[in-house]
Specification:
This protein is an alpha/beta fold. 32% of the residues lie in helices and 18% in strands. The protein contains nine helices and nine strands. The mean pLDDT is 96. The structure holds ligand BV8.
């Protein structure tokens, strides 16, 4: 990758790999979440209809894990970049995360979009309200807005439409640079973002522990832990 001059608008896609060094499990590693649970049993609307308690227990555990985790140097570096890239002076920046943890925000990043929802949010299927939620949903607590006992995890399951797609596509169309961090490129539409960015002329960079399913689409792939690669890249972008 040559000098980073000429870069104004940046889209960053993050996946479970950026939170691995914070102790949160990824999905597809040998000790991944999908080794203990079948996607069909815990991450689809059908699963929730079939066995809501199993699904609520799965997300109760994820919610507790998120609260116990701490941001790592990769999250901190992206927050530094967010602060050093003000819209007026440097350009646009959007962190599109597939992760349901709040580690980007706790590290200080502001421009974050959770396309697959958030562990610390509950969604009322009766009145559509969303509420910050840190405890269990297992006992079907009443919705703070409408009192119905219809709260579900505010998570985008397989077969459901991800959040913020219009905003994401608009950002990809304007991007000068697209950086993918810690994702296997296994799930769509996120896995297709690199192609979208590339078709609009963006430079594309992948920072990942190993080659992903989409590696061939990237101008450059740097392999290693996010806690090392991300601070390195951010230093290149903001000079030191
Ligand atoms: C939709 C929330 C349509 C849940 C998640 C056939 C072909 C194409 C598509 C489909 C198809 N059949 C079905 C589909 C659609 C489906 C899909 O893509 N399926 C796949 C399996 C083929 N997609 C959907 O259903 C999506 N919705 O398409 O809607 C639609 C259209 C119109 C109207 C209505 C609907 C919704 C998908 C969202 C599912 N929810 N997450 C939860 O968290 O519990 S998906 C989940 O897996 C993640 O959010 C993420 O998106 C995805 C991939 O996970 P990763 O983050 O990449 O993690 P993974 O473990 O896979 O990889 C980690 C990587 O990190 C590895 O590469 C590893 O090497 C690296 N790493 C590890 N440690 C480190 C590291 N890197 C750096 N440093 C480290 N230390």
């Amino acid at each position: 990758m040559g000098a980073m001059d000429g870069i104004r608008n940046i889209v960053i896609l993050t996946g479970a790999g950026i939170s691995a060094e914070s102790g949160l499990r990824t999905f597809r590693a040998e000790d991944g979440l999908w080794e203990d649970h079948r996607v069909e049993d815990v991450a689809t609307p059908q699963a929730f209809r079939r066995d809501p308690q199993l699904v609520q227990r799965f997300y109760d555990a994820r919610r507790a894990g998120v609260r116990a985790a701490r941001p790592n140097p990769a999250h901190a570096a992206l927050a530094r970049l967010d602060r050093a890239w003000p819209p007026g002076e440097r350009g646009e920046l959007l962190i599109v995360t597939q992760n349901i943890d709040d580690l980007h925000e706790r590290a200080g990043a502001a421009r974050v979009l959770h396309m697959h929802g958030e562990a610390l949010s509950a969604w009322c299927t009766a009145c559509d309200a969303r509420h910050g939620w840190t405890d269990t949903l297992l006992d079907s607590p009443p919705c703070p807005a409408c009192s119905a006992r219809s709260l579900r995890p505010d998570i985008v399951w397989f077969g459901e439409m991800p959040y913020g797609m219009d905003r994401i596509f608009a950002a990809l169309a304007r991007a000068d640079m697209f950086v993918s961090i810690g994702t296997s490129g296994a799930v769509y539409p996120a896995a297709g973002f690199v192609q979208q960015a590339k078709s609009h002329g963006a430079r594309t960079l992948e920072l990942n522990l190993e080659r992903s399913q989409g590696s061939a689409w990237f101008d450059e792939s740097r392999l290693g832990p996010a806690s090392e690669l991300v601070p390195e890249w951010v230093a290149e972008m903001i000079g030191g």
